[in-house]
User: Fold this.
Amino acid sequence: MKRKEFLKSLGLVGFGSTIVGAKAVAKTNAAPSKLPPNVCTLIPTETAGPFPLDLTANATFFRKDLREDRTGIRLNVKLKIIGASNCLPMSNLRVNIWHCSKDGLYSGYDNNMNVGQAGKTYLRGYQMTDANGMAEFTTIFPAWYNGRITHIHFQVYVNANYAAISQLTFPIATKNAIYAANPTFYPNGADPMSPANDNVFSDGYNYQTATLTPNADAALGYDAYLEVAISGSGISKMVEVETGGQFKLGQNFPNPYRDLTNIPFTLTNAAAVQIDLWDVTGRKVATIPCGTLDAGNHAIPVNLKGLGIAHQNYVYQLQTINSNGTYRQCKMMTAIE
Assistant:
């Protein structure tokens, strides 16, 4: 199976940076207001510009490591997606991030602000959230550029009717310490702006400031973390994809898992069934042929040791083929650390 067919089963092909039905929320620099129990504040909605791309147009972008040939201080980004109605993690959602390089340039564009970057793909990518609502990326610490403080764009795609788009920034002192300690990468030095005079964050940034801490291993740079509350509720949110009514794919169990887990599904009609496993870099690592199965409930055991693959997170895809056609759907399976 081709990688693009896998991306279709994620519902990714043809989905760009457009926001459909996203809710904007008021922002404040003050402390969070008192909320009802188990209710979290929605992430504020921000512009996708100035350099958004349809990440689904290029299969390169399903990956964890976004760096390509870009140099800079390593940054490990973790975004935890939670449902605003109950503050619980939301799994099987797609998270896109993109940001500028250490030189303040964005891939994919060529204009007077961004000369010579057309056709490039660096520092952009997407992942699916795991059982803990987490999407993780390896990138570099971005530069600041005139008119904007240091920031990263991100988008959480829930279904065909709702996607949340926003931006995050970092604590000023820690961010500027990175610039000061690494003049070779960041010759422009400290970011002269504050959120208060940035047109995106000037109306508030309380829910958009990620933590920024040195990794215990100096070679791994810095770790950034932000909880992002979106419309909906955890623990799981079904992703809307086209299955033609031919099957319902369940969450693997147990999940999180060690070396053994099971993938449950229900067939509406008899079909030839296949399960494929893809790692977070977008590489297919295993195929499990299941033969032709009758309509009804099924659970296919998955043994990582038997398949000869590592203990880690995978996206599993169910494919069915019968007289009605070929249909696919994916979910994330989460490894116990």
